[in-house]
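lol ok so funny story. i was supposed to be doing the assay writeup but got distracted and ended up predicting the structure for this chain instead. priorities right. anyway since i did it might as well share w the group, maybe its usefull for someone
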Amino acid sequence: MDPVNKTQVVNASKRKKYEQRIILPKIFFSMTAILLLTLTQIFLRAQEISHAMVFEYDNRFHKAIGVDENLINGYQYINQYPKMSGHAFLGSNEFVPGKLIINNKTYTDIPVKYDIRNQDVIISYINSFGNVNELVLQKNFITEFDIKDKHFKKFSFPETGTQFFQVISNNRIPCLYFWEKTLTVSSSSLASYYEYSDQNKKTYLVINSHLRQYKGKHSFIKLFPDEMQSPIKKYMKSHKINIKSATDRSVKELIEFCENQKMEGSSL
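and the output, tada:
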């Protein structure tokens, strides 16, 4: 072969290899760009779908319970002691129609139960998936609530701090009950080491802005000035009032009688 032609063949071969080296990266980068663009489009589409699903769930949620973040404000209730004997609630472990006052807004006919061990108000609602959820409300925003025939209100006293009390009367001499349960060592159940105690109430009068506890007839009467004690004692005897087991209505009527004695000139 002519040396000149041989040189041209060699140069052509080198040029071809050089062009291939340039073309291959271009192809690689082009394919990579196409792949990234495709993935980006898929990702954006997935986001659209995700946002659409969330929007739909929100709509279903709002239709179920209403758009009211003032009411639906809390965290999911979880029973920390599922195998515990008994329960932490006032009365029964069932939701009952209740009334709530949250940030000065009133809600009625809300399914409510009251955890008296933790002072938590729990409501029931249908979530966006159609399931029943239990929500522990933010107690800081609750001022009052009703469960069946019991009315509760938040009070703050130096003796107890801020707590929910059942209000028996709330006039000149407020009468308040504080309900509680404790965890005790189980003496009979083999399924759990602990069990809930029976519900217990502490009974108080608010006299001269101070919370005063009473536990029976004698301690109740002693909360009043000497000149009031004899009429109160006679009233309790004539109406057969056992202060420990008396109905809420009987205690309210007793307090009203005591307030009338005060109006007649008592130094209370």
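The helical segments are 3-65, 217-221, 226-238, 248-263. Confidence is low (pLDDT under 50) at residues 6-10, 46-52, 60-65.
back to the writeup now i swear
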